[in-house]
């Protein structure tokens, strides 16, 4: 049993879109390649909490522990100031919020999958109370992801009477309180749907409104519902009493519908892919697994885990220290082989497999498979690697007094699921010791590893050096 390319690309788009301050368009992901469908899918699910802006969390690894459980490992930078963290998380609440959110999303996946299964078992085709595909609730899954903050969100809108508060709906899972159980997700679905319908209905009455044609163009048959898109606006099931009641807190200023619709349409696409993923028979073997969530503070991770993203980056970053690394100790610590993982493996046979991550593959490709490795600045993804690694390196700059220039990162989020297209059998048989040894040899022969007495200069991964004074590590 394996996952097709479309399944993986859809869930990748979903996970990446959940960093909602920068909504990604689907076209951004069409050129991604995947060499391990199962590991790609799981890493995408694990990366649901990624946020480059505050460096709050990113996925380190996903592992099948047994036939009944799966482990998600996250790392965070707890050295962020409260100003940098902003309104999303306070330091003391950060770890708990990350773990809670991952558990919550996973529970939602399981709930949706169970409801789809019950629906399929209903041989008579009757309308089951667990039915999740009803047209009347066409936006319920999108709402379900975010309704744990619905009550507080609606209170803010009514109190402030500002339309821009409505736009914050797409960030609600970061800013609002969650409800007590998964069942609470579905408790307010109809209420929120009515709330959304009233807002759009009110907008259609305004003289400066682009009109129903614009609504139909940008929404298709999605989150606003087919009833709203109908040219016969009277067919919308909205009571005049309800509209008049809700008008009292509506702002008279024009609602920035275009900006809001852009966000909602992008959100709709990705949440709909989550619905398709949860209801897919091939994916249910993963969804039913019991998640174990490990949260690593200050990037502390045991060296014995060979496929740890943190481990590989830490050792690579150590080359930039002013003190040379002790090769025997480094090789002794890395005396482990990356196990083989093939995309042809079934889910059952992959239960004990460590999944090699993106940046490890880049390092192996660059320094091991290339007989004459080019300078590090010519890595194929960005400088030094990708946005996810840059987030890690920025935090390392602060916590470990290591200075790498990541300001020219190309901004793409390759994440662990975007593996190299090279033959995985060749790559995964390489040991991390071989990788780091060849990196050290390459840099040493080029005179790029500095001795402590040479100067007060610091190595950059682009092959250049900078003075410590006045250097901005981030």
Automatic annotation (TrEMBL):
Residues 457-474 have a biased composition (Basic and acidic residues). Residues 453-474 are annotated as: Disordered. InterPro entries: OTT_1508_deam-like. This is Uncharacterized protein. It comes from Clathrus columnatus.
